[in-house]
From TrEMBL:
Superkingdom of origin: Eukaryota
Originating species: Psilopogon haemacephalus (coppersmith barbet)
Organism taxonomic ancestry: Eukaryota, Metazoa, Chordata, Craniata, Vertebrata
Entry's transmembrane regions: 85-106, 118-141, 148-169, 175-194
Cellular component, GO annotation: cortical endoplasmic reticulum; endoplasmic reticulum membrane; Golgi apparatus
Pfam families recorded: Arv1
GO biological process, one term: sphingolipid metabolic process
Family: Belongs to the ARV1 family.
Name this polypeptide is given: Protein ARV
Alphabetically ordered keywords of this record: Endoplasmic reticulum, Lipid metabolism, Lipid transport, Membrane, Transmembrane, Transmembrane helix, Transport
Compartments, record wording: Endoplasmic reticulum membrane
Amino acid sequence: KSCQKPVDKYIEYDPVIILINAVLCKAQAYRHILFNTKINIHGKLYIFCLLCEAYLRWLQLQDSSQNTDPDDLIRYAREWDFYRMFGIASLEQTSFLVGIFITLWWMRPEMLKTKSDFILLLKALLLSSYGKLLLIPAVIWEQDYTPLCLAFIKVFVLISNSQAIRVTLNLNRMLAWMAIFFGLILENGVVCLFQKMGWDV
């Protein structure tokens, strides 16, 4: 009321500009998306990102020899491999999120007192993982530099997760990155566990 201006400038902006600013990881754009819009696609986006990741892993398991016989048992075994990759990707992502929540609760227990705080942070983390959708063009345009591209996608998703934590809980960068770091440690622990069990991850 005192300045006669909107508190959130993105209310007046076109959705395309808001999306561009979110891709550039601007905190104010994240704040607008999380608090001033009614986006309710976080669950669907999460499942779709997991499907993309599972498909990419499944493709890496495929042999160069492809048999097109519909009665081939190997073909059905490969289909089960996709479901297994989806389960592994889900467990890894869940362990990453659990690592973040445990770290934040341990560092700042007052931040996650209520169920609504927990749900808001979970929504923010799921929405900020939208960078995993870049796995689709990485799969379509298979090139020799695909591992480098996947590393860039991973870094982009981690930066987005960090911004989501900062905006949601009003934390500084260091605490947000510490939570991300411990989430990665727990996720890598799950990967090591699967590898010791003899599963391809």
